[in-house]
Amino acid sequence: MSQLEKGQVDCPFSGHGADLINVKFFRGRRDDIITVEELKAEAQSAENQRLMKTATISATAPTSLHHVIDVREFAAHL
Known about the structure:
By secondary structure, the protein is mostly helical. The protein has one domain (1-78). It is built from 2 helices and no strands. The chain starts with 35 loop residues before the first helix and ends with a helix.
């Protein structure tokens, strides 16, 4: 059984002595499953943009078209 199957994968944001940065991922209009590979690729892209100083930094999160849900109510109904 792989580390991924066990739910244990390397953190794509852990560097070798590098400073931690705050990165947020937004689903946008996607409703499907986002794969580990996609998440790692996005993290690498974010790191490259930061290093090259080409990152677009937003003060606010994008607005979702999905309706707002109360996570406590959602979890209670599982």
